[in-house]
Fold each of these.
Amino acid sequence: MSQNLEAVIFDLDGVITDTAEYHFLAWRSLAESLGITFTREQNELLKGISRMESLELILDLAGKSLDYGNDEKLELSERKNGYYLELIRTITPNDILPGIEKLLKELKDHKIKIGLASASKNAFQVIKSLELNDYFNYIVNAAEVKNGKPDPEIFRTAADMLQVSYENCVGVEDAVAGVTAIKAANMFAIGIGSMGALKQADVIYQDTADLTFARLIDHFKNSKTK
């Protein structure tokens, strides 16, 4: 078994850029149109899960899940997406989180493959707006993934398409469901955020600026010598 790092697979929201505020505003607009109050605290429950799962959760919180059929829920999810797309039109490379582009550049320079495993169906558009397309060897199309996080499918799909072994991958996530998915995929997990919430991760940084190429390599190598 090789002990060399072959690929790093990133989540998008909260790791590459922070579109969480746009998602919250879009969900709140939809909720208000349905007569539902949706708070920032409730929004935390949506981290790392798919659009349809998020919609179901919001409707459940209001006791309205049974008020809508499948076709109506699909229309509601598309309406939310329309609100979101309007908001993310303003995204530019200035919205890349601290240290991330430097890390991507160093990974590419060292010929380490780079993947994106995001639950967002707008990941391609966001990466294009951030002008980061050239760094990614593969971006998983969330619409083609059957099982959302915490299922490992999306991370395994990225590794399969990159043609690398799971145990030689690092996954970077800011959500509990995402970290769970990385570990279930038999990959090394780096968490960005709260140490308490992301305790399942192998290593945790509060901020992306602290995650450097040298540190990432050291963490991975140390994990192989234990």
Amino acid sequence: MANRFFLSILILMAVCAFHPQAEASVETMEQIGRQAVEAALSKLDAGPESKLACITNAGYATYEGAGTRILFDVIPKYAQISLGAGNLLSVHSRCDENLWFAFLKKEQDGNLPLTYVGIREGVPVATEPIDVHVGKNQPFEPFKKVLGEKAFSVVTLANGWADHVPEDLMQGALYHDHLCSGVFSGYFTVRFIRNALPLEQGERYIYVGAPAWCQDDYLMAPLNLTPGKHGYYTMDYPWYRPWKTEKEVYDKLGGIVIRHNRETDKGKACLLRFDWQEAEFKKFIEMPDLKLDWKTQPWLHVLYNRFFMSRLDRADLFVSVLKEKPLENQTDLNRLIKMGANPLAEMLGPDSDWEKGL
């Protein structure tokens, strides 16, 4: 009886493994990938020597209930685009978001033609190419007409790829789902922490996002800090607001990094400061009278990223230690990370306006 039972299980597993529906999903993905590439390359008039990239939510989005990671194997069959080459960029999205692709070509004159490929009734359809290279005062409305709500995400990632941003920075931007200057600030923060605040024997990093902004989505990966491993915490505090005590005003706050030894329960907390070097940026783009408005001037992110790229090895130009605090025991650590904690007040002293909700 037992042998018959196990034989039945084996037969059932074999039937499922070769079920036409399971095989069809692979065939469907193969077809979708091939047709998407062919449609895009035709629109871009791309040849064997073309410098190409593909931004897509494949790997995160599902299609007809099936996973789409197999497209990472399909796309390289039909174009010189792959994960290993760094030009197949899988951008984080919800699993129930529609599958999409954005193919682009970097041309010698600096143009960056891009075609967006969506799926209509099971068939990939590519738009007419649009140049997404961003310069000073570049309006984003033309991009929005083609890319809709994905315009900022796709355009910033496309320009980042064309500008050769570091691989780990691009990975952080893909997880964040766009390459804003906030993600780039995390690149410098991590470099500063590693260089100026190296771990000593038995220590680990803990990071408190107080304030937290886009950089936090980047820095968790290279420092291997996650909420699940109790290495990352965040507080709801605006990154642009100075902390005002009775004696001093502290601006450009940049988060708190803690070096903690679990065995001794001792460590040190360092409140960082991030200086955007706005005057230097304005010199870089030759617009000394520019008023920075991140919300209405999306082109600022791409230009600021290029400014950052020109100073990749100068983390100390942007990041510094504003305040240090020794931690003598677990209680000292808890004052920075436990529920109800106010880490900025612990590091700098109380801000009466903040406590009043002003």
Amino acid sequence: MDDRSGGDGYDPSVSSLDRLLVNVRRPSGDTVALAVGADGTVTAVIERSDDVAAASRAAGTTIDLGGRLVLPALAEPHSHLDKARTADLAPNPTGDLAGAIDAWLTAEAAGVFTHDDMVERIATELGRLLVAGVTCVRSHLNVGGRVGARHLLAARAAAERFSGVMDVEFVALTHTPTTGPGSEGNRRAVAEALELGIEVIGGCPHLEPDPAAAIEYVLDIAESHGISVDLHTDETTDPTMLTLETLAEAVRRRETGVAVAASHCVSLGMAPTDVQDRVAAQVGSAGVAVVALPQTNLFLQGREHPVATPRGLTAVRALRAAGATVAAGADNTQDPFNLVGRSDPLETAALMVMAGHVLPDEAFDMVSTAARAALGRPPVGPVVGRRADLLAVPVGSVRQAVAEAPAERIVLFGGRVVARTTATSSIDLG
């Protein structure tokens, strides 16, 4: 991560100061203080002890971070909050994708998922993400079919509880089809979601009868309503399924500036290297961000390959080499599509190290700064000019943070402590 201060020392005549964060240890190993303005942004990185003392006297509030490693707060760029923590409500005995879909639809038809239940589950999940260090969340919500836009109402009610401590936005995950015969009900649900203020339009073009038409449909909506796009794309190990290329071509052709993300993109990881390089170049040129989702795709993908089972990840190396933004998210958490998951992006980062062959510093970036970039949001962290959304952990390096995922964490939103977890343990050797 980049921990450059953007300036040296502290000058009270030019640096606004509302609160002061002291004993801040940066990945470079030095300990500094951070001046935070009333708007929650870092206004100065203070290195000299006499300057720290002067700033402390002037600050309205001083927060001692105790020499913990201070990093940019985490982000969750792809979740399914409406499904979170339903693994016991909708059991998936086979563990595969077909079993997950059947389990969810069966429970849904039986009325298992009530509005109040969904509100409480979503609120619980947001709380777990916050204490893990997440201050920015994007969640896909089912829109269409028999549920219409009801999931959005529950998600909005839950998210209101976290106003002012984390940024939460929702994607209309449209049911198929969205074009042609049988699409009328799904389109009505999308229109309702737009009236309710959905921030992002999504869908699954690779499952549509006409993928290209479905892509044009969501891009039309995004352009006309001034919202972003985030599509479930090529969630399959079939190397010939490359709607990601179709999406990149459509975005480049339109040149409208709409922020576009493509999630999953598993089939690109199965394609030959020349195909990976070609598609990655198009994605990078179009400015389409890609979100890898190791947890759910490692669980669901590759079951039809009992030998040399594929990893269920996109072509991370080719995409990064082409200049594309590549982030990583958790996707599903303890639901029929992923029976485990701890609501912690450091778990996702560790999986990217192990399964994606990404180095720890890069993996951390994929669940922090790159994740925010994929959502079209500016970076945060202990850098002048950035909002002081921070994660303070009692470890010595970014690598150690990813490896150990320590339970003890302090989370700040705009320089204000919004979550704190302490942990104690004991060993009795008799």
Amino acid sequence: MFRYEVRRSTTIKAPCADIIEYLSDFTNWPTWSPWLILEPSCPVEYYGEQKQIGAGYSWNGDMIGAGSMLLIDRDTVSLDMALEILRPFPSKARVRFEILQSGNSSVLTWIMTSQLPWYLIFMKSMIKNWITMDYDRGLLMLQSQLETGSVLSTPSIIGEQHQPKVHYIALKGRATIPKIGQAMQSHMARLNAYFEANRLSIDGPLFCLYEYMDKSTTESEFFTCFPVAHSIDIEPPFVCDTLEACDTFVVQHKGAYRFMGNAWALAITASRHQKMKIQNKPMGIERYWNHPGDHPETDLLTDVILFKK
């Protein structure tokens, strides 16, 4: 057996005691779980007296698999839980939450320790990277729920679509997930200025084309793209290129951009579940149907589009 650990932290503007109370009640978990959000119809059962040792819950999903979580210990600054996965492959793990009060905020650390059988050792890095990104998504939603009372994220499957040919003018960037939004805003300002100076028209919804992502660092190479009616000659650093017509798999996200990871996770999970062959490079695109300046975050609509092989 090969041991591995995932450890992720975030700062939440809430007292330690409130976080302990919230996390020890498993009926709260569907609100922020990075897995249950992918399959809202997943059957979930609760047992024991919530918030007390011996409480737990189980799930039996179609896409997200099956398993259970049991609260085995708690004190004023930590929770310990036993996790058992039944599907997609059997495994057991210890889950721990540690909380450190810091002024009016708390630093929450989510830890999982587990083991892999020898025949899955080749998947160790991949599984650890998947869980790390899932934990980051979960902590972001938990932070939002505890600080604002809501999580503005509803991903849903649109399905297979044909993507027509698109010409676009773009700027290329590299950034980790937390910094992509800032980089794209800078790109959009420069592209808007370029289009105005050259009297160009935008021909369709804006989109971001992701070439690839290093899953261990989340650093991505991407193009912020403004569609145009036809190809034109252009000077660097701007590029003009064409996205050829292709077949795709689409998931739509309604809500704040900071939760777009949920739509990507659903697109990848659902396409795998359907045994669909998807290209690794380019990864796919985000297509923005509306914009924060014109619509509230609750109404923002974005497509995540994966390219089929």
